[in-house]
């Protein structure tokens, strides 16, 4: 399953250090429930929109979530450390 339309994301893969992913999404987005609990997130990309590849250090664990329960847009921010 995939989370097709995050509002924003930042991926960092520093040399000889732990990668990290910061992700923002709406609680109302398609498949947003996939991020409800601790999960593994894989970042893939495509140059032609048809074949997708996972790069090195592209796996992350969804551990930390922040959001405001009164926000009607349901904005949630996630901080995911990478692992190898």
Automatic annotation (TrEMBL):
It comes from the Bacteria. This is Uncharacterized protein. It comes from Nonomuraea thailandensis.
């Amino acid at each position: 399953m995939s989370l097709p339309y995050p509002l924003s994301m930042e991926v960092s893969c520093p040399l000889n250090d732990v990668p990290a992913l910061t992700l923002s999404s709406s609680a109302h987005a398609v498949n947003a429930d996939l991020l409800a609990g601790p999960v593994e997130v894989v970042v893939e990309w495509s140059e032609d929109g048809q074949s997708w590849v996972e790069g090195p250090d592209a796996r992350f664990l969804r551990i930390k979530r922040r959001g405001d329960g009164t926000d009607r847009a349901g904005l949630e921010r996630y901080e995911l450390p990478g692992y190898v």
